[in-house]
Design brief:
By secondary structure, this protein is an alpha+beta fold. The chain has 20 helices and 20 strands. The strands form four sheets. Strands 4, 8, 9, 10, 11, 12 and 13 form a seven-stranded mixed β-sheet that branches. Strands 14, 15, 16, 17, 18, 19 and 20 form a seven-stranded mixed β-sheet that branches.
Length: 605
């Protein structure tokens, strides 16, 4: 009843909203803004939240239940609404909006707004007339570029308040950098403000990725200097050109035919998303960044992409390029003035999107490694949830067991069971099995015996059962184990899969079609680890048994040496070579003088 009154009051308020473009805010009972949205028509957009409420899903349903009040701001057009929404989200950080989750600040190269501008590195963007270029995902690339332009154009790095008047009045002296040729010394008038700004203009072209224009200008100056016999000046200009071309060759190169464009790619994963942005100029990636987002109630890819493009573009010097490559059509692409959005289907532009996707996946992996290192408990939870999802399990596989058989043409048949807890080996729980009922090399019968013994005993003792059992093998081995599971009543209680080694194929019971996981999948890596660990553990046990068998057989053939003596020798020496190397006195201490004499005579001592 109370909720009906609340909804009726809100619907009445919605009916009074204008049909103009604008921004709306939803407030909760505490008066806190929990959602900010934009609309081409405020009335139509806000009213959609209160229609068919029972059919709404997920976060949207939770949001509507918390709305106690609605506010709105009318603007002139939808583009202004987009900008205002972006600023409000950044300032207010409402709970149910998409948010840039990453608090990492990327490095930029800044050119200060001064009579003699400085060029420097910064992680803070301040709107005071300073021009910013970037962002740069790699600090190394940013520093390399900064050092290159400083060495070519000898720009100042000091913080002196240089003006034409202060320079003319001779208030400053020459610094060490000017003495060693790293600064053009505008502080003492060695370079005019006009010449200094020409250098700054060239630097801006370089930072925008337009190296061709700068190189052509320098080449013309070099040729002119050479024709006037100013060979020293020509050599310096040549060195500048070589430095620029060297920098260009070290940049990430794409096909030059792509031209000038920006690239955005969005990778979604549950409640998070990762967006990579790349700026392409003249066949080179001149800047790149990846950000993580916490998703709100917006679920459409186009809506999320629109938000992140507007957010990132607001930080960029000069805004977006004329062409922007994206993976899907935007819901409000027309809001970005003079920008053409391209969704490539083939060719170099599609490869750019694939490159951006790779950057997203690498960034996500880096973030996960950082979080895993910081909190092993969170890593285990995330990994278990991922395995549950990838293998279609009903519960997290916190306890996994894997089995492997070993024999040589049926001789010394053994099996091994290894146990993983939370994705890691629990070596104290590993178990060996000597095969008792199977004659010859019969993997299927061996597997049936070992599985029956292992889980028959666990069921009888009321012990903990694993959530997942992995069999080293394909359809044949899996079918044999599934028969035992049916006999023991374990089907539906314990998940069962087979892992075939050749192609890392995963088989499920009663399904002949193999299932493949991505080769880089963490789930597959855990399954391969436990399979390889079972193989290693089983082979080691098999070798030990085989070695003991050979030793036992040779010692038992010695006339006068009984089983008790053989056991003592095996326990003390373990190998035939060590028994052969032992002296008479040493053997006396282990098996007595009579047996020691027989052994020394047998080994020819």
């Amino acid at each position: 009843m109370k909720d009906d009154i609340r909804l009726a009051r809100l619907r009445e308020k919605v009916s009074l909203l204008p049909t103009s473009p604008g921004v709306y805010q939803f407030l909760n009972a505490d008066g806190k803004i929990i959602y900010v949205g934009k609309a081409k028509s405020l009335k139509r957009r806000v009213s959609s939240y209160f229609m068919r409420i029972d059919q709404q899903q997920g976060k949207l349903k939770v949001l509507v239940r918390q709305i106690e009040d609605i506010r709105h701001i009318v603007v002139n057009n939808e583009y202004e609404a987009l900008l205002l929404e972006n600023n409000m989200i950044k300032e207010l950080q409402p709970r149910y909006n998409i948010m840039l989750k990453d608090d990492k600040t990327y490095p930029w190269i800044a050119i200060s707004n001064e009579p003699f501008p400085r060029i420097y590195s910064t992680r803070r963007v301040v709107r005071d007339g300073t021009r910013y270029f970037g962002p740069y995902a790699s600090v190394y690339i940013q520093k390399m570029l900064l050092e290159s332009v400083r060495s070519i154009y000898r720009l100042r790095t000091c913080r002196l308040n240089l003006t034409e008047k202060s320079v003319a009045d001779g208030k400053f002296g020459v610094c060490l950098k000017a003495h060693i040729g790293l600064c053009s010394a505008p502080c003492v008038g060695r370079i005019s403000q006009k010449e200094y700004f020409e250098s700054i203009s060239s630097v801006e072209d370089i930072l925008r990725g337009d190296l061709r224009k700068v190189v052509d200008t320098l080449r013309e100056e070099m040729l002119a200097a050479a024709s006037q016999l100013r060979f020293e000046s020509a050599q310096k200009l040549k060195e500048k050109i070589e430095q620029l071309e060297n920098f260009h060759s070290r940049s990430t190169v794409v096909n030059p035919s792509v031209g000038t464009c920006d690239v955005f790619y969005l990778l979604r994963e549950d409640s998070s998303a990762y967006c990579n942005f790349m700026r392409i100029r003249g066949g080179n990636v001149i800047s790149s960044m990846t950000v993580e987002l916490k998703l709100g109630i917006e679920e459409q890819l186009s809506e999320i992409l629109t938000f992140v493009i507007s957010r990132i573009s607001s930080e960029l010097n000069g805004g977006l390029s004329r062409e922007v490559i994206v993976q899907a059509e935007l819901s409000n692409g027309e809001l970005f003035d003079k920008v053409q959005f391209t969704v490539p289907k083939r060719g170099d532009k599609l490869r750019l999107l694939e490159f951006a996707e790779k950057n997203c996946r690498m960034y996500r992996a880096e973030q996960q490694r950082y979080l895993d290192k910081k909190s092993p408990e969170l890593r285990a939870e995330r990994l278990m949830e991922q395995m549950k999802k990838d293998l279609y399990l009903s519960e997290q596989p916190r306890h996994i067991e894997c089995f492997d058989n070993s024999n040589i043409q049926g001789s010394y048949p053994v099996a091994a069971c290894v146990v993983f807890r939370d994705g890691r080996p629990a070596r104290s729980e590993y178990r060996h099995f000597n095969v008792k009922t199977v004659v010859g090399a019969d993997d299927f019968a061996t597997m049936r015996e070992i599985i029956g013994r292992r889980y028959g005993r666990l069921l009888k003792e009321g012990a903990e059962l694993p959530q997942l059992v992995v069999i080293d093998g394909g359809k044949g081995q899996l079918s044999a184990v599934y028969e035992v599971f049916e006999e023991l009543g374990l089907t539906g209680r314990v998940a069962l899969i087979g892992l075939a080694k050749r192609l890392e194929e995963i088989f499920f019971p009663q399904d002949s079609v193999p299932y493949y996981l991505d080769k880089n999948s963490e789930t597959l890596k855990v399954l391969m680890h436990i399979r390889d660990e079972a193989h290693r553990f089983g082979i080691t046990f098999h070798r030990n048994q085989r070695s003991k068998g050979f030793i036992h057989s040779e010692l038992s053939d010695i006339k006068g040496i009984g089983e008790v003596t053989v056991s003592k020798l095996l326990k003390r020496y373990r190998t035939i070579s060590k028994v052969r190397a032992a002296s008479y006195d040493e053997l006396c201490k282990v098996v007595g003088s009579r047996a020691a004499k027989i052994l020394t005579e047998y080994f020819g001592k």
